[in-house]
Specification:
Helix content: 10-25%
Number of strands: 17
Shape: globular
Structural class: alpha+beta
Number of helices: 8
Order of helices and strands: EHHEEEEEHHEHEEEEEEHEEEEHH
Radius of gyration: 23 Å
Largest sheet: 11 strands, mixed
Amino acid sequence: MVSRIAVTAPVAFPRTDRLLREVAFEGSPWFSRHGLSVLFEQRRVTKTDPHGRPRILIPASPCAEGDVIHLELPGPINTKGLLPASTPATPIHISKRFAVFNKPPGTHTYPLEPWANDCFANMIAKHLDDANLMSVDDFSALATPPVNEGGLVQRLDQNTSGLVISALDPAAKKAFRAAFSAETFIQRRYLAIVRKEPQVPEIHRVTLEGGKFSEFRFFIWHTGSKLLSQLRRPHFQDDTPVTKVFLGIRILSSARGRYLVEVDSRVGHRHVVRLGLMSLRSPVMGDPVYGPEHRTDKDQFSLHASGLRIASTIRDDNNEVVALDNTVFTCPPPQSFLDLASSYLLKVTPDAWENLRQGPGQYAYVIPKSHR
């Protein structure tokens, strides 16, 4: 169902996109720059010319005072935030101040367009509303504009499945965000099926070091050994600053040239696990960004966030406990992951996701504070 919005320019604007950002959607947590770009790309932004005919506008089109801009949205929107999904999310744990959910593969974490209702944040809003724990609008109010993520404190890539934490109040969200940015609070466990054997010992440490993602450099080390290789990915546009990241990686099983590996990390830089595995010459199967150029497994992306361990007690600004230390959450991979592993005769046992090691043990973590 198409919905329409009319916006009147209070003064002259040199650009239509500026008018819409500053007047129509100022401070709205539900309308992102991406959503606005989609409307321009799909020729859904118009104004009526002096002859009464609609004129399609581009972002740089000037607007005079009193001009009425018409927007045709692909679907209904909720001016207070998220739309509820048709299918609720699957909860792993729900407490008074936070909840843990199992994200299915192929689903965006949060909507990039305000009319989308098929993302994981929409599914969480649906579950909380159905369970009478929190209304959709109250969950939406936890978002940090312009990202409409509700209470989510982390994100997974579209094709990555697994555990995602959502706060249920603003103070808890702030505390979890700080914990995810620190190096000692939360341990993450991933399972992945990779194309080649990692070119390092079975238990090792990977160091990713660089400045910004736009000029990201990888330095791969054996634990306590020499530098193995250096890669550069200059095409990145994300300016998120990055320091050093250490990943603990272990091979669980292998067959037919494919390897099931577990990856432990305590920082959440964008694509850090995928980047780390690619830098070891063993990219995640089906990875559309870091896999081989000529792939035959485009639809077989196999990365699953199987475990989270809260290593230290998380407290809010009032020193009230949000989550207790040594709390562990695990979930099995989706059936698509298990089917892919089975097709290569890889053994995936419950120990792969239930036995979340509490280190340091064989994993030598030396992780400086990450900067976001």
